[in-house]
């Protein structure tokens, strides 16, 4: 229609709105949201910029800009997040899967396993990524949030992975032993919460971020319970905050786990602690 706003004009206006809102990457955010509004893969957006904006897409883009200006995470607005080799549904009931957590997946895949337990599974991103690489393995994910488990189940179906999910507080109700236990638990200390970016602090589920204490509560429970749920020689691997390595190593040693060590992420920060059940 003559005079209709083109996608490039819409994009420029969106960048200006997000710049005014003080977002750190207004151009990148606007491009992602425009691709979402147009139902296009991000790498196809450039070819559509000269085209007129459909009215429905324009309304969707405007709503997305409003949400992003309020610091809602991109993944919650679009409802999806790329992680490892897959895409996952994300809601306000789940922690947003982050590239740092791929360090845990990569390390877990460095050795064979036939059974895996993911404690605090959230979106199921860790468990589903591992089982997709080991289709003959069995896996269980636990979470205290029924809403998060519903998202994890949907993600398993979406990614053609068979997994069991259990509403549980860490090991409660978990039967049997596993070759591998993994977890990305809430590790932000209460006094660190105020310093988080508003995208995280105001939008992601608080119980997935902090233990309302020193940030180590989950590691105490996981380290103490892991030996009873690991097969001899089985591995425990947990994501940590970059200053927690020494303390989490000490907890694993106190629980009788062998050879605890800290693994860095791609930026060189401490990211994963790995230990093994003797045997």
From TrEMBL:
Residue ranges occupied by any Methyltransferase small domain in the UniProt entry: 101-188
InterPro entries for this protein: DNA_methylase_N6_adenine_CS, HemK-like, N5-glutamine_MTase, PrmC_N, RF_methyltr_PrmC, SAM-dependent_MTases_sf, Small_mtfrase_dom
Enzyme class: transferase
Binding site for S-adenosyl-L-methionine: 120-124, 143, 170, 184
Superkingdom: Bacteria
GO molecular function (one): peptide chain release factor N(5)-glutamine methyltransferase activity
Catalytic activity: L-glutaminyl-[peptide chain release factor] + S-adenosyl-L-methionine = N(5)-methyl-L-glutaminyl-[peptide chain release factor] + S-adenosyl-L-homocysteine + H(+)
EC number of this enzyme: 2.1.1.297
Listed PROSITE patterns: N6_MTASE
CDD domains, alphabetized: AdoMet_MTases
Residue sites binding substrate per the record: 184-187
Release factor glutamine methyltransferase N-terminal domain ranges (all copies): 9-79
UniProt record, GO biological process: methylation
Keywords from the named record: Methyltransferase, S-adenosyl-L-methionine, Transferase
Pfam family, one: PrmC_N
PANTHER family for the chain: HEMK METHYLTRANSFERASE, MTRF1L RELEASE FACTOR GLUTAMINE METHYLTRANSFERASE
Function description: Methylates the class 1 translation termination release factors RF1/PrfA and RF2/PrfB on the glutamine residue of the universally conserved GGQ motif.
Family from the record: Belongs to the protein N5-glutamine methyltransferase family. PrmC subfamily.
Name listed for the protein in its UniProt record: Release factor glutamine methyltransferase
């Amino acid at each position: 229609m003559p005079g209709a706003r083109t996608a490039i004009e819409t994009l420029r206006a969106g960048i200006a709105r997000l710049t005014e809102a003080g977002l750190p990457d207004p151009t990148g955010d606007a491009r992602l949201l425009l691709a979402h509004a147009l139902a296009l893969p991000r790498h196809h957006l450039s070819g559509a910029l000269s085209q007129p904006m459909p009215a429905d897409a324009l309304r969707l883009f405007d709503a997305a800009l409003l949400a992003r200006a309020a610091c809602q995470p991109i993944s919650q607005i679009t409802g999806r997040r790329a992680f490892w080799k897959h895409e996952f549904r994300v809601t306000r009931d789940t922690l947003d899967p982050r590239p740092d957590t791929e360090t845990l997946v990569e390390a877990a895949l460095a050795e064979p396993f036939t059974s895996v337990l993911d404690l605090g599974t959230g979106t199921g991103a860790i468990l589903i990524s591992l089982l997709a690489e080991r289709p003959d393995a069995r896996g269980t994910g636990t979470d205290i949030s029924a809403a998060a488990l519903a998202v994890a189940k949907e993600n398993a179906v979406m990614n053609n992975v068979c997994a069991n999910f259990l509403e549980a507080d860490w090991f409660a109700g978990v039967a049997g032993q596993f070759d591998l236990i993994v977890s990305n638990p809430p590790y932000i200390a209460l006094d660190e919460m105020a310093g988080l970016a508003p995208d995280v602090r105001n939008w992601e589920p608080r119980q997935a971020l902090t233990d309302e204490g020193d940030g180590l509560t989950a590691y105490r429970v996981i380290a103490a319970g892991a030996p009873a749920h690991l097969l001899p020689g089985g591995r425990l691997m947990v994501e940590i905050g970059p200053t927690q390595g020494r303390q989490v190593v000490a907890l694993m040693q106190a629980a009788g786990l062998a050879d605890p060590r800290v693994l860095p992420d791609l930026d060189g920060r401490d990211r994963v602690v790995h230990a093994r059940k003797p045997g």
